Give the backbone structure.
Amino acid sequence: QVQLVESGGGWVQPGGSLRLSCAGSGTNVEMYLLGWWRQAPGKQRERVAVISGGMTTHYADSVLGRFSISRDNPTNTVHLQMNSLNTEDTAVYYCNARHLVEGTEYWGQGTQVTVSS
């Protein structure tokens, strides 16, 4: 069982930056694909960025060049640095961990990000 706890959400003006963090506990997450997803009101949850244990990353087109995902395996943490935020980035952001072999998947409780003037 993996527990994921997000932090770092909040309100920011357009053009601003936020850094989200997700702390994992219960097991070592090195064998997990870690990622950030988001869900805006009335929309489906979408994948924002993922990072493998080997540090390979993939980003949604909408955030490419603005967001950066990173992880620290010894401390079981994953971060999402979000720059040049715009109103379309407003959503609840969820941390996700998926085991690369077993496929077991875990979610955090979500953290709200609001971009408005």
Summary: The CA atoms of residues 86 and 103 lie 33 Å apart. The mean pLDDT is 95. The longest strand covers residues 91-99. The chain has no helices and eleven strands.
